[in-house]
Amino acid sequence: MPSDLRMFTRVTYISQGETVSGRNTGVTIAEAAGVATATSAQAHNYQPNQRVYFSGATGGNADTYNDARGFVVLTVPSATTFTFAVPSGTGAGAGTIIADMPIDCVGAQLAAVATPAALTSIALTFQGDIDGSGTFVPIKPHTGTAVSWTVTTSSLYVPATDGQHFGGIMRLKVVGGTAEGGARKLVLSFILTNPY
């Protein structure tokens, strides 16, 4: 193994009642003096300085909240609230808002996924965004069948064929096959594809 190999890890959660990592549904957004406070229906597991993306906002400020560039989490006042900056006077978010925190993996390739001791899903599939537009599609090799891993608890999984299905992806989501009964922590390892 080369001594200059660079690796990093990312932690993501599949929230209670969800199947997609980093996703929280039923989000409401209030705004005051340029600070927006998002409240989720379940624990979001987000941390300051992570990037969150919204979809489903409607009304006159929909373009602000649905911005494909996302927002940096400023603070996490509670397990179900977090704050982020918006232009002052943006107002509250309307619509059926979903908050997503996909894994940023530009210049890297998925090397491994560690599953937690409690996991309802027995299969994981993956979605990718290749251009930063916020459009996520199932990851498939040339055969046309979505990449799917059969998984169990407390295990470490590596992609087949040296991860060739995960190159060139800007943002990644892990999708479980079953809604989880609680927040489930997944740890993903990446190898930098261009460490220089």
Please tell me about this protein's structure.
It is a single chain. With 196 residues, this protein is mainly β. It folds into two domains: 7-18 and 103-192, Jelly Rolls (Sandwich); 24-100, Elongation Factor Tu (Ef-tu), domain 3. It has one helix at 62-65, and strands spanning 7-14, 24-32, 35-39, 51-58, 71-72, 81-85, 93-100, 103-104, 108-114, 123-129, 137-138, 148-150, 156-157, 171-176, 184-192. The strands form three sheets. Strands 5-4-7-2-3-6 form a six-stranded antiparallel beta sheet. Strands 8, 10, 11, 12 and 14 form a five-stranded antiparallel beta sheet that branches. A four-stranded antiparallel beta sheet has the order 1-15-9-13, with no helix packed on it. The longest helix is centred in the first third of the chain and has 4 residues, at 62-65. The radius of gyration is 17 Å and the shape is globular. The mean pLDDT is 89.
In short:
With 196 residues, the chain is mainly β. Helix content is 2%, strand content 42%. It folds into two domains: 7-18 and 103-192, Jelly Rolls; 24-100, Elongation Factor Tu (Ef-tu), domain 3 (Beta Barrel), CATH 2.40.30.
Features:
196 residues; mainly beta; Elongation Factor Tu (Ef-tu), domain 3; 2 domains; six-stranded antiparallel beta sheet; five-stranded antiparallel beta sheet; 1 helix; 15 strands; 2% helix; globular
